[in-house]
Amino acid sequence: MIALYAALAWILAFAFALTVGAWHGEVTNAGLVIAVLAVGLAFPLLPSAIAYLLRSPARSPAKPLNAQQAQWLTQLCHSISAPAVTILGQSIGHTNAAFLGLLQFPGRAEELVGRPLSSVIHTVDHARFTALLNDLRRGAHRDAEGVFRLVRADGSLVKVHLNLSPQQVRDCVLVQFSDDTQ
Fold first, then answer.
1. How far apart are CA 178 and CA 163, in angstroms?
2. What are the b/e assignments for 136-148, b being 16+ CB within 10 Å?
3. Distance in angstroms (rounded) separating the CA atoms of residues 51 and 85
4. Residues 43, 10: contact at Cβ < 8 Å?
5. How far apart are CA 13 and CA 35, in angstroms?
6. Mean per-residue pLDDT for 18-34?
């Protein structure tokens, strides 16, 4: 309906330009007609131009980790004695033995690596965790923390305090867990 209104308004403006141009001579006539044609042809492009100008800068796709970065992330996670994981994008990149013990996955890191961290967070806490992670990645905070419930291998819940810290490697976040049973 709006497109019909815009098309009719453009036709009316075109007719007005022809009429006014006829009253004032050929130069005015040509100038008004060209201006109305230009605006009329640019009008359909206006919404996409506005959307292009207002959109946030597009992020280029994440580059794969090089061998040095992958080794550094593995060492970082394993050198921490408290339960910890590194998140690459949305999924778990590395875990340590303390995290596997916390979730009752001893020696079974391959079952968690590659899965989203939200798969071990209780569903009630998913929205809060996603919002916290998005705020951190947007740069709203240098670090982020919160209390969440994790789901163990046997289905039981454990309440933990999460501390999220962005790392030097693009799209990588170190997540450290501490017991929050008090």
1. 8
2. beeeeeeebbeeb
3. 38
4. yes
5. 10
6. 69
What is the residue-wise DSSP string for 89-134? TTEEEEE-HHHHHHTT-TT-GGGTTTSBGGGGB-GGGHHHHHHHHH
Rounded to an integer, what distance in angstroms lies between the CA atom of residue 174 and that of residue 94?
A: 9
Tens of pLDDT along 101-144?
A: 999 988 888 888 999 988 999 999 999 988 888 888 777 667 78
Nearest to 83 by CA among 110, 111, 114, 104: 104
Instruction: Write out pLDDT tens, residues 37-61.
Output: 777 777 677 677 777 777 655 444 5
In terms of Cβ atoms closer than 10 Å to its own Cβ (0-12, 13-18, 19+), residue 28 is middle
pTM as predicted: 0.59
Give every strand in the sheet of 157-166, ordered side by side: 91-95, 84-88, 172-179, 157-166, 144-151
